[in-house]
Amino acid sequence: MEQQDRFARLLGIELQQVAPGYCQVSLEVTADMLNAVGITHGGVTFALADFAFAVASNSHGKAAVAITGQINYPSATRAGERLVAEAREASKTSRTGLYNVEVRNADSGLVALFTGTVYRRSENVMDWINGDIS
Predict the structure, then answer these.
(1) CA-based nearest residue to 103, from 51, 33, 30
(2) Domain spanning 6-129: CATH superfamily
(3) Contact of 82 with 28, CB cutoff 8 Å
(4) pLDDT tens digits, residue range 73-121?
(5) Beta pairing, strands 82-92 & 96-104
(6) Residue 18 phi, psi (nearest 5)
(7) Could you tell me which residues come within 8 angstroms of residue 66 by beta carbon, excluding any fewer than 6 positions away?
(8) How high is the pLDDT of residue 131?
């Protein structure tokens, strides 16, 4: 999944660990990722959390698509900081899943808290990624 996600590659997101219902990813904030006041753009942090959410929710092998995503930003970061996002499955049924993602800086300070829900499709995630689904 990481190899197929062009946006994640563009941001330099690195996959650290995957297990069923779990994913850890990271990225280093660059100057190009800052907003007008010199802190990390919220969209960058959201994208990091969303990617961890996507990998964790698809880690069971069935295609999962987001139906909600919500984020809170308790603290800001700046260029040069490494952000780590950890997604954990809070609830899983045959059709839905609920995930919490914590984004932290190198000092383990909470940067963002993301919650997302997925709808699980019947297709295999790799078939979908490879375009084998009509």
Answers:
(1) 51
(2) Hotdog Thioesterase (3.10.129.10)
(3) yes
(4) 999 999 999 999 999 999 999 999 999 999 999 999 999 999 999 999 9
(5) antiparallel
(6) -140, 140
(7) 50, 53, 54, 57, 116, 117, 118
(8) 64
Q: What residue spans define the domains of the chain?
A: 6-129
Q: How far apart are CA 9 and CA 123, in angstroms?
A: 25
Cα distances (angstroms) measured from residue 3 to each of 14, 39, 50, 53: 10, 28, 16, 16
The model's pLDDT over 1-52, given as tens digits with 9 standing for 90+, comes to 556 788 999 899 999 999 999 999 999 999 999 999 999 999 999 999 999 9
Q: How far, in Å, CA of 99 to CA of 90, rounded?
A: 5
Cβ neighbours of residue 75 closer than 8 Å, sequence gap 6 or more = 105, 109, 110, 111
**CB neighbourhood size of 63 (10 A):** 20
Q: For residue 50, give the amino acid letter.
A: D
